[in-house]
Amino acid sequence: MEEKIIIKNLKKEFYDEQRGTVLAVNDLSFTAYSGEIFGLLGPNGAGKTTTLRMMATLMKPHSGNISINGFDTIKDPQNVRKSMGFLSATTALYPRLSPREIITYFANLNGYPEDKTEERVEHLIEYFNITKYADTLSEKLSTGMKQITSIARTIVHDPPVLILDEPSSGLDVIVAQKIHEHILDLRDHGKTVIFSSHNMGEVEKVCDRIGVINNGKLLTTGTLNELREITGKYYMEEIFIYLVQEYETVKQKETGNVND
Fold it and tell me: Which helix (H) or strand (E) holds 10?
């Protein structure tokens, strides 16, 4: 498989008045391949969102390298952005525009060929089954339809790499199921998907490999079955808790805060 995302020795620091320098991402390295859904998981404050933002060129690392589709995020951010669709957990829609207008706008914004834009937009409207709502103002859409529109605008320029942060958060089971089906279909068409979620059930369902981070460090990566072997746990929720707690225990022992 072709390497589409290569992250090596990534570090990011922030300054906090109370804590001083905080190492949010600490020597993080992993690779994701074409035709793969890679789950990037971590508790709140683990460095996951900071990592996603650096991948999307919204932040610069203090050291280390990120390559997206062969382009360096520092040296060639413009081509990185062309190669990527980024769905943030805080993504919002323009309330006075319809899904058709929003998707079209983002096609233009991302440099999709003008003579093919209308066809591409109509394809996505049909693909996501939003024809009935395509010309309704976004402010009048349900939460599910807003999220589907957000995903459509994320992929309208047909990027090889997708970063999806909590793509089904707050959605009912039926809409979430549809989104999962679309994400799996994108994977099957060769896309590289970074999938971040706090819903461990959907992580089990859609991710080919999973990386767990805490305190800015990558704890481990592997398929679900590999993580089961590593931890001795079966469900992803149990695996996740075990890895995070084990890491915390090790750190406490290293600093002398717990007795052996």
Answer: strand 3-16
User: Residue 38 in contact with residue 211, Cβ under 8 Å?
Assistant: yes
Domain 3-83+160-254 has CATH 3.30.1330.30: no
Cα–Cα separations (whole angstroms), residue 219 to 27, 48, 77, 213, 255: 11, 12, 28, 5, 18
Please identify which residue in the block is written with the tokens 């983002």.
106
pTM: 0.91
The one-digit pLDDT tens for each residue of the chain (260 residues) are: 799 999 999 999 988 777 788 889 999 999 999 999 999 999 988 899 999 999 999 999 999 999 999 999 999 999 999 999 999 877 689 999 999 999 999 999 999 999 999 999 999 999 999 999 999 999 999 988 999 999 999 999 999 999 999 998 878 888 889 899 999 999 999 999 999 999 999 999 999 999 999 989 999 999 999 999 999 999 999 999 999 988 777 666 766 665 54
Q: Where are the domains of the chain?
A: 3-83+160-254, 95-158
Q: Is 118 helix (H, G, I), strand (E, B) or coil?
A: helix
**Is residue 205 helix, strand or coil?**
helix
Are the CB atoms for 36 and 208 separated by under 8 Å? yes
Number of neighbouring beta carbons within 10 Å of residue 31? 17
Euclidean distance between CA atoms 161 and 52, whole angstroms: 12
3-state secondary structure 147-199: HHHHHHHHHCCCCCEEEEECCCCCCCHHHHHHHHHHHHHHHHCCCEEEEECCC
